[in-house]
Amino acid sequence: MKDKVPTASQQAAAPVCVDVPRRISPGRLALQQLLRRKLFMFGVVVVILLVLIAVFAPLVAPHDPYGQDLKNAKASPSWSHPLGTDTLGRDTLSRLIYGARTSLIVGLIAVAMSGAIGMAMGAVAGYVGGWVQSTIMRIIDALMTLPMILLALTLAALLGGGLKNVVVALGISMIPPYARLMNAQTLSIKEKDYVASLRSMGARGNRVILSHVIPNAFPPVLAFGTMQIGFAILAEAGLSFLGIGIDPPGAAWGAMVNEGYRYLLTNPVLSLAPGLAIMITVFAFNMAGDGLRDVLDPRLRGMG
Amino acid sequence: MIPMKHLLEVRDLKVEFRTPVGTVKAVDGVSYHLNDNEIVGMVGESGCGKSASQLAIMQLVSVPPGRISGGQVLFEGHDLLQFKKNGPEMRAVRGGKIAMVFQEPMSSLNPVLKIGDQLMEQARAHCQLSRREARERAIELLKMVGIPGAERRMDDYPHQFSGGMCQRVMIAMGLCCNPRVLIADEPTTALDVTTQAQMLQLMKDLVERFEASLVIVTHNLGVVARYAQRIYVMYAGRVVESGTTRQIFGRPRHPYTLGLLRSVPRLDEKHGSRLIPIDGMPPNLIGMPGTCAFLSRCPFVIDRCRQDAWPNLEEVEPGHAARCYVNLEEVTREQVLA
Amino acid sequence: MTGYLIRRILQAIVVLILSTFMIFAVMRWLPGDPILLYISSDTYARTTSAEEVEALRHEFGLDRSVPEQYVRWLGNALTGDLGESIFRGTTVAAEMGRALPVTIYLGFVSFIVAHLIGIPAGIISAIRRGKWLDSTITVLANIGITAPIFWVGILLVYFFSLRLGWLPVQGFTSPFDDLGKSLQQMILPVFCLALGPLAGATRTTRASMLDIVHQDYVRTAWAKGLRERRVVTKHIIKNGILPVVTLGGMAVPMILGGSVLIEMVFNIPGMGRLAVEALFTKDYAIVQGVVLVVAVMVVITNLVTDLSYGWLDPRVRIR
User: Fold this and answer.
1) B285 close contact with A: CB closer than 8 A
2) Could you give the number of structural domains in chain B?
3) Is some CB atom of chain B closer than 8 A to the CB atom of C128?
């Protein structure tokens, strides 16, 4: 864990003189600094809130998100319907809350899937090297030739649409960054002297990977993964906006934006509210991921 | 205009750095001076403030998180610290009257500019030379520092030079505009031993030729022994001993200086005698107590050291001052006799 | 340098083949026989005999193995024949010939706008670090990446078209037909498309500049007493610009991906909309064609980026 020593004092007082007071351990120091960053706390709080809302959606939502009430269709915001109703008289707020479920499920599973597969591919590629590495990395490059949205859209549509296929499509489309990250990490750790000395003492390859490579690579991947959840949610929203994703009458934020587009002049809330929800969610995950990354891997700070 | 007794005089300089864990007093009241045609050594271990004080002279300290919190730097009748940080007066001094050579030569040169351009930009900034004149001067300087094929090398990039050659280029840049003072911050640390010797000799010769003064900042006593006329020993942000090289090496009066001398191998030592390292660790410069900073590592501690504040620099003989309550000469003489 | 170039080009070709094959294979291995879909569409509403089905299958080459079909497709593609759109009755090449220029036009303008604003913003943000200008720019950049661009488009349409009536809601006109109208219609879509790359450019430039500012050679430049302007241009920016080149490379896939959504929001007849429509009508020939063209564009962009970087950085260029 690097001490936060200002670069200027490298010129003057090398870290030797500025050791951290012995009472605070590096882990606690990191936690303290994290807590101090307001945006990070905001992100974490919002994420936790979202998860709670999604899990307890039936309790939180004021109405049944699928309950139609055609007499009350396209109503403006009121006390019983804080965000109004849509064309079929369904309460917008309730649908928004249930939409959180869709987004979070897709986001988390897609990232978990792409992370697991990508890291595995990257670790194997980096460790084994040779033609295995070349092949794997070429496949990764091939996945990267299509913009993520287009690839996910194509795969999801070809597989037939529906929530499961969206998750699979996203899970596949988001593999490349993990694979590359793991590959690079594995390569650099492989080069390190201590691995060579371990192997010269007879440690087997898999053990080396499992006990050294993966734990070392994990922190930056964790931070990265948190931010990727945000992007996965963004992608899912895009897909459901285009009409691929949860089948009606299911609630998904992107689809709600699309449905509301037609009534933009009369009921802008229908379209604008879900979009705002998406943005806040993605922002929260990004802030959380940013903070994690600053702590776990300061080298990547600021690099988008 | 302030009347000048010396070429450069630093009075009670203070530099501090804000860190997440507290304020580091990197330079805590440092005073020294430099005369014409003189070579002075600033010696101390990493983090004692020797480099920070040199950067502060030219206001090169990164202002957040660093800060020059006090003191005066008197040069050519003005206090340099009163100049605006990037104002025309300060800029005229930097590189023009006082030049600095840094520790890592390979990373101290701009990788995307040709060597010739880097030399020329300085010449044109300070000496008002035309492009052609600047180019000629640059080539001449490269030859002076001993770079073979100088003219061809003008169009090369830094990564095409070795470490030693990069350092020579840095020296050339430093001397480009006939500065009065050349400050070399750990000029040889990144080089191998043979090159070190060449570099120091080169600097000495050039500085003599240009009639300038040289400040060598280093942690290596051997370096200053041969070349410096006067030495300042620094510890924990202050000068703890100052004097001529003879005085410092022959009759050190501060326990830290003594410790440094004992821990360096000497060719004339008896076979089988051991090196004596200094006990303990360098101090944490955050929240320093008022007592002597060397207290925990000093083998000559007396009660007074623990009770009173860190002593001031007291003259122990003409031209030789030390910051210690103990008369080291007497104590060591007793030890030897005992 | 030429050896490097040739190797990279070969790599690029391999990757292209891999990616187009992957999509090709997924399409062929799907449940759902395209022939049956074909004959169940309006044009062939009558019942078809088994022999006719087989004949159709043979005609479209669907009775061969997947790799064989791919090679056949690839061969045709290289001569410019990308097949026919089953549902539109036109050639794939014709459809793409109509749609591609539109997307490229919008994408190009967005790219320029994004970098013309983003790079200076990043530089200013770095130089005035910590001041309010930096914070504002950073926050805006953050919004740029987190906001869903289709929603931003809709939001803008709400304000600028419906409420204020300043700009048209949707549509596309070629600049050659009516420049004024074309520009008006372009403003909102370009803004949306440029948002992501702009945010990326700002952040990367800022990070790069901040990193450079602490480098030893910048300290040397200050120590030489040079003017601030010279230090910033010749020493800081000249070094900081290198990562931004790589960044430009990433902007292209971002814009192409964004086009899929933006063209649907603003009803623009470009490649994005073409791809979406083709996917929904299961018009696989078009999908394959779009995939090929997009992949080629991305691969070429990457190649150009790599080579530019190599050329700009003297450490790579010389020896």
Assistant:
1) yes
2) 1
3) no
